[in-house]
Amino acid sequence: MSDTAARSVYLMGHTEHERRRLALQASVLNPLTRGFLERAGLAAGMRVLDIGCGIGEVSLIAAAMVGPHGHVTGLDLDPQSLDLARARARESGYDHVTFTHSSIDDYRAANLFDAVIGRHILIHTPNPLAVLRWAASILHTGGIVAFQEYDLSRSVPPYPQTSTWARANHLIVQLFSRATPHADIGIRLFHLMLEAGFPEPQGRAEAAIDGGPDSPFFEWFAETLRSLLPRMEALGITTAAELNVDSLAYRMRAEAVSARSGIVAPTMVGIFARKP
Q: Could you tell me the residue range of the domain that residue 197 belongs to?
């Protein structure tokens, strides 16, 4: 697989704010991811590769599922995120998880895996089909490929509508539609799995809904906009003064609670299949 085919360009950056955003996001998405991996067939004793593992959220879910007789390898390009992932694995008592600083292009698997998984990684890759074909090449026959990806080409408005949340969603859709080759990667996944040679893929689209005064949604979205702001300013989508990210979570929460709105997170599509 060529470097240009698979090298990720991560729009969110590698900052302390971004690592906080990942943790907030995990508090919302981890239950969906665990259910997805259970449906995909992750089980005790498996060897699993987690691509684009970040601070280790999905890796740790997989580690709990495969147990001490299995093994999980997390792969990422951000050394600080990997340091945090290693510390969290130690705190959880998981000595069957290792984290590797590497791109997909540079990674060499010593042995074949039982599963290759990832969450929100293909949207950042120029050629997701090449990544799926690479995943097939390092899987045992019958091995699982399982990815969760957003559809960020559109958004579902809350009900009742709230202007600040709607504006934030619109900015995210604008950015990903302009700065990535496939903002709708989630709905492409089924087709891409077939193109990569995986028969009978299965999956579903899910979106978390919340909006109460204690919801993590508002800080999560504010930190998302903070991570994306440099790229948005570079593309002329918005400015720091216009966005006022420091007060964004407060404003979104106040509007949603006042209107009793149900806030809909971005749609996340999970598709899995087995290598024939």
A: 3-274
pTM of the model: 0.91
- The pLDDT assigned to 23 comes to 80
If one counts the domains in the chain, the total is 1
- Residue pair 172/149 in contact by the 8 Å Cβ criterion: no
Strands (E), 66-138: 71-76, 97-101, 113-119
Tokens 């089924």, located at residue: 190
Neighbours of 83 (CB within 10 A): 13
Distances (CA, A) of 116 to 42, 101, 228, 236, 273: 10, 17, 28, 37, 10
Phi, psi of 99 (to 5 degrees): -125, 135
Count of residues in the chain:
276
| Model pLDDT, residue 20 | 79
Q: Which tens digits make up the pLDDT trace of 114-142?
A: 999 999 999 989 999 999 999 999 999 99
Query: Measured on CA atoms in the order 118, 123, 125, 129, is the torsion positive or negative?
Result: positive
Structure confidence at residue 14 (pLDDT): 55
- What's the CATH number where 73 sits? 3.40.50.150
202 beta partners? 272
DSSP assignment string, 185-217: HHHHHHHHHHHTT--S-EEEEE--EE-STT-TH
Question: Which residue stretches of the chain have pLDDT < 70?
Answer: 1-15
CA distances in angstroms from 61 to 33, 37, 70, 146, 220, listed in the order given:
8, 9, 13, 14, 20
